[in-house]
Amino acid sequence: MRNALNAACVPLALAEFTTAHRRQIVDALLAISILCFTIPPTLLGLSFSLWGPVPDWFEILIEVIAAGALLIRRRTGLPMIVASALCAVATGQIVPMAFAAYSMTADNKVRKWQLATLPLIAAAAAVDYVDPRTDDVLYLCVVRALIFIFMPALVGTWVRGYRGMISELRAEARDREERAAVRERRKIARELHDTVTHAVTVMVLNAGIIRDDADLETGKLATTIEDKGVQALAELRELLAVLRREDGSRLTARATAIPSLVEEAAATGTRVSLDYDLPDIGLPAQVGHACYRVVQEGLSNVRKHAPGSRVRVVCEARNGVVTVSVVNGRDEGRARMSLQRLLPQSGFGLAGLEERIAILNGQLEKKGTPDGGFMLVARIPFHPAGAQSADDVAYDLADADADADEAADGESA
Questions:
Q1: Sheet containing 321-328: which strands, arranged edge to edge?
Q2: What pLDDT, on the 0 to 100 scale, is given for residue 283?
């Protein structure tokens, strides 16, 4: 399974690399194209120079320099213009000048590009006039040179304008999406505050009344209900703070809370064991939060569907992948609740969990075990270098705003 996961990550890593280095790859391909255009005529003896006979090694050197100048065309345009003109004069190859004319306008590296095209047009006309394979009509050579140099430059100006328009449209689309997301989060926050929060508050108050008036055993159960209700209210308040903030960067639980979650399950009678091997630092907060939710959902399903089964929770991080599994055996007291029947009867918990993990480029596996139990396994890739420190900063910066939002909610209530 791990080999399959690694194999699936290879295309993803390749796609990320090509996206991150797209410009460098394009420049390298253009340089290779220039070499393919210029070097073969030199090796076949079809090149010529306006200076007279030139050694082949010198021509190849000039052609390599012209191709290499394309690699820095996005930073400066002068080396590319000079190298392409020199290549045309020394080898009779005018193709690099067309690339230079396009690049200097598309990347906006030459302020007065109309003047910069004049020496290129002159060099192209001279090469065309001297070339023994073409006619020696001067005005035709000038017209061809003008079209060959000026048209790529005009196309470059159009491409630059198109890129600017696309960037503006994307920025506007992002702004609209962010505004729509903020409105939707605030709407959800209002609904949670008006319904769920008030209902849970009433539940906690009723549990407190039962605790005061009941016997010892019932009082313990009421105390447990009250404590869980208070914890749920705390998480709801934090969730409301996240929904009311624009960035939504604050999360309510991390992977370090998994042992406490397992202890709570064991205290309620669940036969559960834990193998915890996750790093305390270096794990991104989003990944840790997803791990916590996987264990929480798995233990919740066990309590609902197989309360008499043994459960094993395993959390480990190996080779940049966090693996969290919750596996339970068959419930002898409720044999009819096999794992095959669990999936179609489950609600939105597993579906939401799968969506949460998919956002992190992870995979969630849920299936029955050979002994009639159930296994819930999540595998999430992560990058430990610098991830945790950035998330810690986000947490710290979010605390003040979240507290202010909670205070505002309390005043409005």
A1: 271-277, 310-318, 321-328, 374-381, 363-368
A2: 80
